[in-house]
Every structure is written in structure tokens, then in C-alpha cells.
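Deliverable D4.2, example record:
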Amino acid sequence: MKVGIVLSPSSTAHGTRRYAEIWELALQAEALGLDSLWVFDHLFARFPPDPLSGSWEGWTLLTALAEATQRVQLGSLVLSVPFRNPVLLAKMAATVDETSNGRLILGLGAGWHRPEFDAMGIPFGARADRFEEALQIICPLLREGRITYDGTYYRAIEAEIMPRGPRPSGPPVLIRAFRSRMLRLAARYADMWNTAWYGYAGDALRQAQEAVRVACREEGRDPSTLVMTAGIIVSEPNGESGRTLYGTPEEISVRLRNFEEAGIAHGICELEPLNEETVGHLGHALQIFHRGR
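Output generated by the structure prediction step:
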């Protein structure tokens, strides 16, 4: 199982995390042997009466991280597709895949936080319908290089990606999905599927995995061809049990092994808190994890 971390651009107790800190954490994670770095895609988070929480723009961060790093995979967890025209989004993905030398994982979702939609004047309704139409443009463009499509929400007339990125079929597409329709879209279009967030590999994870297997069978797809990924919350060594994975590096390595044994091919860890100490703690756990093979 591969293991990565979310370099969350969201606000911290001391204000919005600056890119200089994100850069340092990215280099530390790569040096420690982690497999991937992930970014969220939000304008902001508005949950009154809590203060507004800000974010840096996700694509720009991915572009910067592609230049800052050499080995780790880079992923979006996940891009809100309605924020960008699907033809442009596919072009941007091919370009970041080029600048990263084929290290991009294109995570896609329909979006969920209505205040962001309202702030940008984007319709919030029919998100699954819009997402499905966008996938019918994005996936063929990345995999085949051209598309003509005339739908209810999107049009693409003789759209082409030129030049092509470093991989003939483009970067792998990851879809985060929970509900029936979105699961079927993942089964139909995605290379990878994501479910989140978990503190341990238990019944909730197994139920989510069975739901996507059912969706694959309904779509006539072999479930084994869909790569399963999971978001894992990892807290400080003295964290509370339940929704987070915590403990000594040895204990965390055992719990990571449980995810691997459950069929998860890529664990995406959100560290609480995210700092040099917790990245180092996970890096130590990952070294033990690999030695145990």
C-alpha cells in the first residue's frame, strides 16, 4: 500500500498556512519516503458562527509542488469540477502531468460546500448531472486527446489536447463517491476510487467497499480493476481513539497494515495537526510498515 499526506492549505490556529511552510513539509515528506502529496480544492469554508476559514487555490499549489518535488505522486482530493470548464480542466491536468513528469493523480468530485458556489455565482443544483456531463468530456479528452460533446450543461466542439502529456492515456482519474449514483459514475469512468475519512479499517470501510463493488458489477466492470484508496485521519501520539488512527509509530504501522489487508492500495493521511513533528511521526511509522513486509 502506498501512503501519502494531505498538505492542507486551510487555516491553522495561527492563520492561513503559508506556502513556505507547505514547501518545507512537502520536502520533508518526500525525504521520509512517503508516496504522495495531496491538496484540497476550496475557495473557503463558511460554517457560522465559526470564523471564515481560508484556502490557497488547489491547482496553483499542485503546480508549485510539481516543481518543488522529484518523486512523490501529486493528487487533488478532490477538485470541485463545477469550478472550472471541463475542457480547460483536462488541459490543466495534462499540463501538470507534464510538469511533474507523470506524477499527477486527478481527483474529481461534484463539490458540496454551497457558500463557495454562491460566492462564484455557480449553480448549486443538479450537481450529479453536471458532474456526469463533465466526465464525458474530461475522460475522453485525457485518454484519447479529442472530443465533441453537446449536452445540457456543457458543450465541447472539436476540443483537443495538444500537445499531449507524458502518459498516452493521461493521468489516472480518481473519483470520491459515497452515494449510489456517484459510485456508478466512479465505476464507469474512474481508474481509482476514494472513500474517507477513517481512523481504522472497520465495518464502515468494508461497507463502502462493498457498495462500490456492487456499482462496478452493475456497470459490467470487474471490481478488481478499480483501485481503492482511503482517507485516513492520523492524530498526535496521544490522540483519542475512535475516529482517528493514533499511537506509537509501531502501532500506526500495524493499523496501516490493516488497511492494506482490507484491500486499500493507497492510504491518504490527514494529519491532526499537520506539522513537522507529525509528518516525522508518520514517516517513522511508514519505515516500520515497509520493514514488516
